[in-house]
Amino acid sequence: MPSEAYEAVIGLEVHAHLATRSKLFCGCTNGFGAGPNENVCPVCMGMPGVLPVLNREAVEFAIRIGLAAHCQIANYSIFDRKSYFYPDLPKGYQISQYEQPICKGGYIEIPSDGGKKQIRLVRIHMEEDAGKNIHEEGGSLVDFNRSGVPLVEIVSEPDIHSAEEAGAYLRELRALLRYTGVSEARMEEGNLRCDVNVSVRPKGSDKFGTKTEIKNLNSIRFVEKATAHEIARQIEVLESGGRIAQETHLWDPVREETRPMRSKEFANDYRYFPEPDLPPLRVEDQTVEQIRTSMPELPAERREKLTRDHGLTPYEAGVLTEEREVSDYFLGVVEVGLKNYKTAANWVMTEVLRVVNESGKSIDGAVPPAAETGALLKMVEESTISLNAAKMAFPAMCKSGKGAAATVGELGLLQVSDEAAITAACDQVINADPAKLAEYRAGRDKLFGFFVGAVMKAMGGKGNPRMVNEILKRKLAG
Amino acid sequence: MSDLFRLTIAEARDQLARREISAVELTRSCLDRIADLERRLNAFITVCPREAMEQAEAADARLAKGAAPALCGIPLAIKDIYLTRGLRTTCASKILGNFVAPYDGTVIAKLRAAGAVFVGKANMDEFAMGSSSENSAFGPTRNPYDLRRVAGGSSGGSAAAVAADECIASLGTDTGGSIREPASFCGVVGIKPTYSRVSRFGVIAFASSLDQVGPFTKTVRDAAILLRDLAGKDTHDSTCSARPVPNYEAALTGDIKGLRIGVPREYFVSGMDREVEDAVRAALTHMKGLGAKLVEISLPHSEYAIATYYILATAEASANLARYDGIRYGLRVEADNNIDLYNRTRARGFGAEVKRRIMLGTFALSSGYYDAYYLKAQKVRTLIRQDFEKAFTQCDIIATPVAPTTAFNLGEKINDPLQMYLSDIFTISVNMAGLPGMSVPCGYDSKGMPIGLQIIGAPFSEETMLRAGDAYEGSGAIKRQRPPL
């Protein structure tokens, strides 16, 4: 049957580093940039005799993301030991949560076919990260700075049915993690990691096909590509009469294909059992309510606000709210009293994000304060400058750090709205080319554009376009 | 040679406070005694005379200023399972044969702060796995009462060192009887406190939900003094209780009139050494004479305790011992790849009993077996705990033998693990239920080997337990005999 007759069934397991000050079970700094094995202590090195002490902030962060994803927060959850041997795992087991995680159920809402769709969650649980093996010529080294860094694992139900939905889910989850301040959620830096479970089945079937798991995905684009590739591969296998093997695949970003790992690499019996060194985690309803009241506005609410109050399209609202800082910036820009929200939205999506992306800095460091950008757009709205002039002024503002008024003044971009000056320019252009004037009057309307261009050129681009149009039309008519 | 080494903590504390003796003299006396006896006893893996004398000098300086803590200047032996900063800590294993601890555990830090003196690290069964101290990579400890016999285990070195006066008191750990059984075999007092009463931070883990730290002393009063300094909340141990620590010594009133002593019928069984049973029964009769009431109780799930213990303890151990992988510290046997490195390191580093228990525990947790073993054992553990809860509605303390026999011969049970495991038949349930238990000397068999009476309390009732033990000890029920060294 044709590939359209198949339906993909996809579930995501996402690991996110929590941006807590210290590690999950010890007081070591949780952060990037330190030299190898500088952020370590006996506890996260798995020395004999050490015991874990749970980081309260990490619990709060896990609850925050749980609330953002509409989960039930468990009043009682437990930690378990997950055993396997690996040089970067200092205790020979990872402290994780198995049967009783901190968050259960919930969902994440994604845009889908112009509407919305809920992707249900199975659970969110807390666990510690392992260290990092570094292979060098002549031997391997282990850096334990990352050992014990808190993670949440967010497991979705298999509610996702396309590579695009997988990407949308990840973008939304990433936005939630960032809005709540729980994680920096940068896939390139490895503080957001995603494994994808994929199977296919004939459309309409309620049975699951055999699934494969894809690992080694370090960008949302790769997740989408790898998922699409794997769906196509599975359909091809089935169509040629083959069977899908339940195995783990690695995404090869260079060859843009998935290939199976050797089965030995993941054949583990983790021998989970409750961690006897940690008492059960009890969270009072009151604590959950306190955290709930301190939650910031989430992307869905903000999107709603931007479409309802600012008249933006779902697409525009989606782009602006992907990052909390960007939507904050947009709201800051319009706050100066702009009437045209569309222009402001387009400005932020194109001019602002271009500068941000090119600079590689955060929005705070890359572009002028929102109020200054707002002031610049306000000048456009009030015809003090042209839109083109604003586009010239903006990069200069970004570079110099000066305000809108100062920059426009320095660059001499102020628009000329003086009727006499515009009339004079129009007269000059018309008188300079009687032949064209005759043609125009004979019915070649298209020449109007030529005259506008000539007047603007004569005025150094600063003529008020509305007035130039009016005066020129009158003059040309004779 | 002075015989200051014979002093108890209470005696030494008073004499030190009055400056009749110095910490240096007392420590020197213990170190001389160690030099004298160690070749016969092997109670220590490491003796640290230089560090001990430095600590003693510091203690004397503090004592000279007056108002020093009770343990200031008191020479102690520390089971080699406690991490002691800068000192080798082996856990009696080849895998940690050259391991120097990078930090002090909580209990060690407290004792240092109190001015205690550490004369050395005591011998034990490797990773506290055993009942005879024969499973030590450093050779077995011998019983001071008969050098052909075992000292008990796993804290055999700590028990023998106190019995032989190589120190004034010592520390051990007890997971299934590892303090009480050697205390019984060596004729000293040994306490396993309520689970969570004392911090486990910096104590090498065997079975985390069962391990507990405790003292060996010459008298019950000494145990009360030492326990007070060990117990209390620790921010490094999430399982450690925040309950205030009472002044245990103040609880030793000598009065047990009206105290209800539960006598579990399941603990007086056939196959038990006749002389042990007689001595324990005589002790009970004696306590009745002091005004206590004997109440027959039942602990019906006792017979499942050993089987359950060997699932739960080994399961936890299989994970706790996974960190000894040759990567970061301890023994490493090189290989071309990780798996071979682990296999070779662990094959060479661990002894037979440790390997046996790792395999048992790994099996019990394996996929497909978890429910039948680990989960079932947890349920039985709950039943055992409930047995005690019920019993303590009828009585204040429970009294039983510590072990079914007196100290057995070296080599007698080492090749028969099941027989060895049975040595702990009366002590294991106490760990399963998280209760406090102690061993108090209650006589000697016809060969002169010590016998211990076990007193078990309800959770956090150490004061009652100690009061009963002290009243019995102080009433002159038995004449204490020194080991013939």
Question: Main attributes?
Answer:
heterodimer, A: 478 residues, alpha+beta, Arc Repressor Mutant, subunit A, 3 domains, three-stranded antiparallel sheet, 16 helices, B: 485 residues, alpha/beta, Amidase signature (AS) enzymes, 2 domains, eleven-stranded mixed sheet, two-stranded antiparallel sheet, 15 helices, 37% helix, globular
Explain the overall architecture.
- The complex is a heterodimer of chains A (478) and B (485).
- Chain A folds into 3 domains: 3-291, no CATH class; 297-411, no CATH class; 419-477, Arc Repressor Mutant, subunit A, CATH 1.10.10.
- Chain A is 41% helix and 19% strand.
- Chain A has helices spanning 56-68, 163-179, 220-239, 285-293, 299-310, 314-321, 324-334, 341-359, 363-366, 370-381, 387-400, 404-411, 419-432, 434-441, 447-458, 465-477, and strands at 6-17, 72-73, 76-77, 80-83, 93-96, 103-104, 107-112, 115-128, 132-136, 139-143, 150-156, 192-202, 212-217, 248-252, 257-260, 273-274, 281-282.
- The termini of chain A are far apart.
- In chain A, 41% of the residues are buried.
- With 485 residues, chain B is an alpha/beta fold.
- Chain B folds into 2 domains: 4-261 and 395-474, Amidase signature (AS) domain (Amidase signature (AS) enzymes, Alpha-Beta Complex); 303-378, no CATH class.
- In chain B, the strands form 2 sheets. Chain B has an 11-stranded mixed β-sheet with strand order 1-3-2-6-8-7-12-13-11-9-10.
- In chain B, helix 4 (106-113) links the parallel strand 2 (75-79) and strand 3 (117-122).
- The mean pLDDT of chain B is 97.
Quick overview of this protein structure:
The complex is a heterodimer of chains A (478) and B (485). With 478 residues, chain A is of the alpha+beta class.
Q: Supply the CATH architecture of the largest domain in chain B.
A: Alpha-Beta Complex
Helix content of chain A: 40-55%
Mean pLDDT of chain A: 92
Alpha carbon gap, first and last residue of chain A: 72 Å
**Structural class by SSE content of chain B:** alpha/beta
**Rg of chain A computed from alpha carbons, rounded to a whole number of angstroms:** 29 Å
Q: Give the low-pLDDT segments of chain B.
A: none
Q: Report low-confidence residues of chain A grouped into runs of 5 or more.
A: none
